[in-house]
Known about the structure:
Structural class: alpha/beta
Strand order of the largest sheet: 2-5-8-1-9
Shape: globular
Distance between the termini: 22 Å
Radius of gyration: 21 Å
Number of strands: 11
Largest sheet: 5 strands, parallel
Amino acid sequence: MSAPSPETTTTSDGARASLESLRTEIAKAVVGQDPAVTGLVVALLCRGHVLLEGVPGVAKTLLVRALAASLQLDTKRVQFTPDLMPGDITGSLVYDARTAEFSFQPGPVFTNLLLADEINRTPPKTQSSLLEAMEERQVTVDGTPRPLPEPFLVAATQNPVEYEGTYPLPEAQLDRFLLKLIVPLPSRQDEISVLTRHAEGFNPRDLQSAGVRPVAGPADLEAARAAVARTAVSTEIAGYVVDICRATRESPSLTLGASPRGATALLSAARAWAWLTGRGYVIPDDVKALALPTLRHRIQLRPEAEMEGVTTDSVITALLSHVPVPR
């Protein structure tokens, strides 16, 4: 393989620096939550979508809003409610009395970064309106497909499924998300920092006054994605990813294991993480680092395992300790 040209290297390094600076900008609004920030950056690099789960009040929405403010991208927000209709998201045909014709009125999905807030508070009929958009990056209304802008990313937030008034996302929709990121309660020190910021006048509804500025745009994303695509993947690493996913299908604790799409997602996320850390090739540690957020929503526990306190994360962690690591 020939060495990259100096121009390519500079472009790649500049794109990496721009995406790394996203963390700094987001940190101006959100304290802690570094794994979630990293996951959002990885998703941007992989053209993937992200599901953020956590109890109310842990800054899930603020995290995505801070990401949007740090990017020179068009962004829209939809608050999912029980009475939301599919057309409220995708758009619909509207009758124009002046021309006596129907014209298409685009919905909020026609944007670069869609914040789907509390996605599991709307019924499955409305949730499914995003399926085509997330997979094929287009919306079909009245038989006419309409392409979405590029880049296109759905960042959805949800409360834990055991909360009242929630509709669990179906497996087919969960599989559309590249990563499921858990947003935990902050540590004591981080919570003190949050309170201190608010006491000093921080307004989460005014990110501009907090100093959050756009530090990356479409050109940076395109250069970064091209660099990620050049990140080398050995046959051994590909086999390691496949072995992990096949192990989930054979686990006695699971009724549903990771599909080949899950294996593809894990490899893509590992490549992005390898590039972000400054390497031009993937190592087993990259795969391990992204295994939990990539696979936790693609597998399903047996009821008896769930009653015994087993979690999807504990199953994946156990499998990672048993699947042979390539040398």
